[in-house]
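Table 4 source record.
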Amino acid sequence: MQKAILIIIGILLVLACQQKNLNTNPLHQLNNQEILTLKQQTVRYFERLPAKATEQNKFDTIFNEYYSQKAKEADLFLYFKNDQGEEFFAISKIAPSIKLKKVATIIQIKREKDSVILYKEVLRTWKMEVPELQEKTKVLFDLVIQNKSFEKYLTKNSQPEFWVEFPDDHTYFDDKSRSWKTK
């Protein structure tokens, strides 16, 4: 009897230690309009500024068409909402390259109605071909949503592989300005 109880406890411990299998497919949680809305609410942060725009005027309506197009072009391919109402998503966009390559950004936000009250770019990957990008970003995304360290994937620790471009020893995300800064 004691042996059976120890076996059951052992099995429960093994199951408890296994990684949670969390649903991160955005299409299982959001409809197409909700995905577009999420991208439209955040595109002015994750996308480059259009010509003649500054950090101070990027919300002016004159830039709506540019940002609307960029939101449509961006691919939101991972999504998770935690119990505290924080949303995490991975978004990719085309990077300059001879071959088709993309860069992904893992973003954490919190929304109230139509406002984004928390916006943080947790990390940005190096540019990669799409299959590699999706595979590596999924690994990183799972770590982020489980509040685990991705330090071993930083460039200084991951050689010869390239995973995370930012943050690094010189670049960090400034929550107040909602942009990447250098030290």
